[in-house]
Q: What sequence folds into this?
């Protein structure tokens, strides 16, 4: 891959998060396969730094979160992680979008194998998810005497409804990819081994759209989820006016008239 962003070095028993840009797609990889990609404190910090690097890289228009090995992640490695501390450093983009700074650019998650606890919470914080058909999901914190702490308690309800969410939050049972698709936790199920390629395909399609319009669309949706319909409606006029003054809007209108794809510069 043609790396523009820097890649953290490391690995071994503490694992690592690797990242690089290919074209306009920013690839973020979870890399501790010998331990089911269980997250260590080092990996939590590196993940936030990777998200920040993506946000800061003007040439990156969409990211893909994926994992090496046979599994996405078994979640936090509880033998190493202190749950009393903030897992992600302050001042960096929060990968689970619970506190600012928040990610403003789109991200597609590709999951497979075991996808437990933090894995589900990372994918629920993404903008869309491609799952391998053999993915095994589990939000099993209550079996360990703790509560999901990165968004599952409310994002699962928002997607699936109270009863469907509580069915798996409280029983600590696995569910499969078809169930995740039915509940809206994932958007597409593909054959095992195809999840990364499909996620990259979706990301590349997103990168061909007008990036300012993509980000504004995400902002409008986030405002609705966070603040409700009146707030989302109230911010639309200014948003439309701002976009109409951009070079990307002019290019979009020209490409429409000329019946061609737009060539957008993000300005």
A:
């Amino acid at each position: 891959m043609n790396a523009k962003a820097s890649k953290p070095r490391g690995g071994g028993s503490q694992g690592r998060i690797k990242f690089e840009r290919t074209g306009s797609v920013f690839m973020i990889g979870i890399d501790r396969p010998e331990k089911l990609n269980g997250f260590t404190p080092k990996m939590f910090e590196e993940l936030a730094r990777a998200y920040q690097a993506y946000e800061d890289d003007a040439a990156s228009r969409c990211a893909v979160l994926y994992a090496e090995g046979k599994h996405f992640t078994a979640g936090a490695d509880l033998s190493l992680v202190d749950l009393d501390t903030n897992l992600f450093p302050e001042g960096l983009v929060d990968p689970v979008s619970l506190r600012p700074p928040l990610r403003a650019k789109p991200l597609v998650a590709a999951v497979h194998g075991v996808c437990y606890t933090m894995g589900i919470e990372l994918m629920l914080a993404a903008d869309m998810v491609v799952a391998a058909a053999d993915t095994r999901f589990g939000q099993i914190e209550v079996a360990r005497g703790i509560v999901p702490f990165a968004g599952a308690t409310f994002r699962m309800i928002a997607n699936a409804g109270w009863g469907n969410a509580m069915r798996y939050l409280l029983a600590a049972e696995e569910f499969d990819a078809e169930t995740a698709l039915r509940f809206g936790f994932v958007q597409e199920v593909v054959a095992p081994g195809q999840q990364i390629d499909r996620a990259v395909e979706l990301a590349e399609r997103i990168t061909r759209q007008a990036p300012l319009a993509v980000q504004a669309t995400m902002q409008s949706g986030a405002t609705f989820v966070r603040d409700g319909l009146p707030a989302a409606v109230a911010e639309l006029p200014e948003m439309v006016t701002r976009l109409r003054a951009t070079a990307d809007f002019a290019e979009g209108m020209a490409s429409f008239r000329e019946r061609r794809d737009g060539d957008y510069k993000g300005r």
Observations:
- Residues 1-11 have pLDDT under 50 and may be disordered.
